[in-house]
Amino acid sequence: MEVDPALMKDLQAKDPELSGAAPPPMPSDAEPAPTMVFASIDEMIGTASSQSIDAAPVSAPPIVVSSGVTTSERLSALEGDYRRTYEDFVALRQQCGENGAVRWEKFRQRLEESRRKVIEKHHCRDVSFQVYVKNGKAALKASPKNT
Fold first, then answer.
1. Which of 22, 18, 20, 23 has the alpha carbon at shortest distance from 7?
2. pTM over 0.85
3. Is the C-alpha dihedral spanning 110, 87, 132, 94 positive or negative?
4. What sign for the dihedral angle of Cα 119, 121, 124, 128?
5. Distance in angstroms between the alpha carbons of the first and the last residue of the chain
6. What pLDDT sits at residue 75?
7. pLDDT tens readout for residues 39-65
8. Residue 38 near residue 44 (C-beta atoms within 8 A)
9. Can you list the pairs that 72-77 forms with residues at least 24 positions away whose Cβ atoms lie under 8 Å?
10. In the chain, what are the domain boundaries?
11. Whether the Cβ atoms of residue 125 and residue 146 lie closer than 8 Å to each other
12. How far is CA 145 from the centre of its chain?
């Protein structure tokens, strides 16, 4: 894909990472932005049973990503993709004659970790998972997606 040089120059002026230049240094008295780490999609969207918040909930409009899909819709779609991948994986294990149960929570945790690693490594927007047979056993492949 080719980017218009004038557009690229404008983008580079707004975002130092695009131009390869280092971002300006953080002042020594500045506090870093808070980081939120979620153990699961449920925790991220607020449905985890272990979540306890003392403050009253704040009413805010949903965040909309560039495709016009809200974050909660995207997370629901991810959860559905994870569930279908799990079901396909379990079915393929049975077809291959593999013994032992695969716990949903552990499987989902693995998918979330794999997705995060692929996105970090390939700087992609999303990850697709494929279930296939490798050496007579069910296997899972994570592939970067940029759409």
1. 18
2. no
3. positive
4. negative
5. 13
6. 72
7. 555 555 554 444 444 544 555 554 444
8. yes
9. 72/45, 75/41, 75/44, 75/45
10. 71-145
11. yes
12. 11
